[in-house]
Design a protein that fits this description.
single chain; alpha/beta; six-stranded mixed sheet; three-stranded parallel sheet
């Protein structure tokens, strides 16, 4: 069992438990193992903790300024920060979206906590962001303060992005430059353009069409500043730089960070390859299995790993919008949508998610048995 969370409904662990019940309903003697998965977004700290990490508590600034309590995970001299738990969508007061106000300062403050630990690397998982501030709040917390053309300091806000001409380093942690910083992302989108942070993710964070255009203009200006800092004119068009509203571009330009797949990082920690090599079947799942899933999110990476080990991967999802050929190409051999299974609308599947996930998993096991028997009969005939 290697499912991701069903956002707004069940945690990854709860999904795995429901799947296990479904497995045993269809095959009572089956041996089941679970892999903790995440892709840099919500659930990353839990997955790292499941691998044996120490959780260090810290208090940081939430997306709209209120303090929130989070943790930094430390494992094998590597510290892990989950942006979603610092200043992501799940941390918005009352769940109210704030596309022009939400910022990333809390993630920078969590990195300061990580740097205070005895570590050699800091990994920042950046999925689930509530903001499109170009990472300016993140940088400000780490001592890189934005300034205007005349050198005047600027508040690290979305409204000021078009005024930024550079950054003044002040009180930057001495060892920040010597400790590698990794941005673990679940997307491959660039910072700007039609596939960029504002156009693709702005609406998910509450931005209307006019606000999306405003955010794109702001990010386009900031992208030029980052390109100059990094001496890379194509920085903002590079894959992954649009993660978390542009925080990845900020980290690359000012901090020399690298961008890596969050899902692959967590799967490596959980030794997923060993478990998949042992298994006869791998079950993946998430709330919505769509084309964005296939661009680096955890279920897609698990399926690809299973494909590499020649192990069938089956998917259970609240709804499935990705084209069938794309699912097959990624290694997903079969799938069941809870919405289609129960013939309910999406809101109803939330209420009955555990029962439906168990039923869907059992159904897939039965299909597998049938196919195996049929293939065997064809071989002996």
């Amino acid at each position: 069992m290697a499912p991701d969370k069903f956002k707004g409904s069940l945690s990854a662990a709860a999904v795995a438990e429901a799947m296990t019940r479904g497995i045993h309903r269809a095959a009572s003697a089956a041996e089941v193992r679970s892999i903790a998965v995440a892709d840099g977004g919500e659930g990353t700290l839990a997955a790292v903790a499941a691998a044996g990490a120490l959780l260090v508590p810290t208090r940081v600034t939430g997306p709209t300024g209120r303090p929130v309590d989070t943790h930094v995970a430390v494992l094998d001299r590597t510290a892990y920060v989950e942006l979603a738990d610092c200043c992501g969508l799940q941390r918005l007061p009352g769940g109210k979206l704030a596309p022009l106000r939400a910022g990333t300062r809390g993630a920078g403050e969590a990195v300061l906590c990580a740097l205070a630990q005895d570590v050699d690397t800091v990994v920042v998982g950046v999925g689930g962001s509530a903001s499109t501030d170009g990472g300016i709040g993140f940088l400000d917390a780490l001592g890189f303060h934005p300034h205007a053309q005349d050198g005047a300091p600027l508040a690290a806000t979305v409204e000021n992005l078009h005024l930024v001409t550079g950054f003044t380093a002040h009180h930057v942690p001495e060892h920040l430059a010597s400790i590698p910083l990794v941005i673990a992302t679940d997307v491959s989108n660039p910072m700007i353009g039609p596939e960029g942070a504002a156009h693709v993710f702005g609406p998910q964070k509450g931005a209307n069409p006019e606000q999306v255009r405003f955010l794109e203009d702001q990010l386009a200006h900031l992208a030029a500043v980052y390109a100059a800092e990094a001496r890379d004119p194509e920085l903002a068009e590079r894959p992954g730089t649009g993660a978390a509203g542009g925080i990845a571009a900020a980290a690359v330009a000012l901090l020399g960070a690298s961008i890596k797949s969050g899902a692959q990082a967590v799967l490596q920690l959980s030794r997923a390859a060993e478990t998949i090599d042992w298994a006869d079947l791998v079950f993946i799942g998430e709330g919505s299995l769509d084309e964005q899933t296939l661009r680096g999110k955890a279920p897609s990476e698990v399926a690809a790993l299973a494909q590499a080990h020649r192990t069938p991967a089956y998917a259970v999802a609240g709804r499935i919008d990705a084209p069938l050929p794309a699912l097959r190409a990624r290694g997903i051999a079969d799938q069941v949508s809870l919405v289609e299974l129960a013939r309910l609308d999406q809101s109803d599947t939330y209420a009955h998610a555990e029962r439906l996930i168990a039923s869907a998993t059992a159904q897939l096991v039965e299909r597998h048995r049938f196919r195996s028997s049929r293939q065997h009969l064809e071989e002996i005939s």
